[in-house]
């Protein structure tokens, strides 16, 4: 029999205070809650025990239960070695207890399912750590890799980290809660395998939280309607803010909910139409001034402090003397007048925001442009986005709770 030196079990952990149990086999049952939390293993099953045997980490079940016949009449039957990657101590060769069922004769291994996926050697706490680094710091793969090496003595490839993020089990948490009735809706264009897709998002203005998110292939009004209809089933529906896309308008009208156009988008749109018209037409100074005056009047309506002012300004616009042509008719008679209500809902009800800034800020924060361009895989895209949204939602709720005290 060869004699082996019994090494200190955690050579790489300088801060650890050694206990007698770390050196004596069978003494160091992995039970104390501080031990569990040190390795991020709080969720490990009670029946899974971690021991130190000759400097090696050993896993066995408190009670070996036969997976075939569920019998508890089992005996230990040798061990096998398995490489596992842990928080703080990195890669370790572990021994895993094997058992034999006395009833049916089957040989089986200790159940490690609460610690590691069967097809992986990266333990679940490490996977959680990677997901958190990604969510909380928005850390890229290189940063995550660096951090794992620095903090946990873990060396795993970029590809493994990427795979973990892509396979992340996280689903957007559609809490069963009551929403306020005041929403913003927007979509984000993302290119997946060379094809444009749309990430639809609905946001609750009063609760400051995302209601739902969905990746779809088309932005037609039927798809939008389905998304809104499903997201707001059995919820209060008072108003939804959007930009000017007619698909959104058709969907929200069908939903029979008040729609308000984002003031920022409206102004941007009107500015662009005037600019294009000036660019394409050689105007007499008189006509040019008249149009500038018309634009100012329209902006006054949009910026009105209350609904009465807005209505008076609209009536003045109807009486206003300006040359009617295709351009002015399109703006005044086909947009400002018929959609007056959608342009001024925020004046009727102070719960309704005048712009869609809030939801656009979330998109910008979570999904900067450079990330959008590099997204290739549908599942990965959604997983990553959900991870970040999840963090945004948690952080936001915390901040909100904090300020309410
Ligand atoms: Zn059995």
Structure notes:
This protein has helices at 20-23, 33-38, 124-137, 141-152, 158-167, 221-231, 246-255, 263-280, 285-302, 307-319, 326-336, 340-348, 357-366, 369-374, 378-403, and strands at residues 48-53, 56-61, 74-86, 90-101, 107-109, 182-192, 195-204, 209-216, 239-242, 258-261. With 405 residues, it is an alpha/beta fold. The model is unreliable at 1-18, 20-28, 372-377 and 400-405 (pLDDT under 50). The relative contact order is 0.09. Helix content is 44%, strand content 19%. A hairpin with a 3-residue loop joins β3 and β4. It has 4 domains: 20-118, no CATH class; 126-167; 182-262 and 355-403, Nucleotidyltransferase, domain 5 (2-Layer Sandwich), CATH 3.30.420; 263-348. Bound molecules: zinc ion.
- CA radius of gyration: 31 Å
Distance between the termini: 68 Å
Mean pLDDT: 81
Number of domains: 4
Total beta strand runs = 10
- Shape from CA axes? elongated
N-to-C SSE series?
HHEEEEEHHHEEEHEHEHHHHHHHH
CATH class bucket of the largest domain: Alpha Beta
Overall structural class, as computed from helix and strand content, comes to alpha/beta
Bound molecules: zinc ion
CATH H-level superfamily title of the largest domain: Ribonuclease H-like superfamily/Ribonuclease H
Largest sheet: 5 strands, mixed
Tally of contiguous helical segments: 15
Percent of residues in β-strands: 15-25%
Can you tell me the CATH topology of the largest domain? Nucleotidyltransferase, domain 5
Oligomer: single chain
Which ranges are low-confidence, i.e. pLDDT below 50, for 5 or more consecutive residues? Answer: 1-18, 20-28, 372-377, 400-405
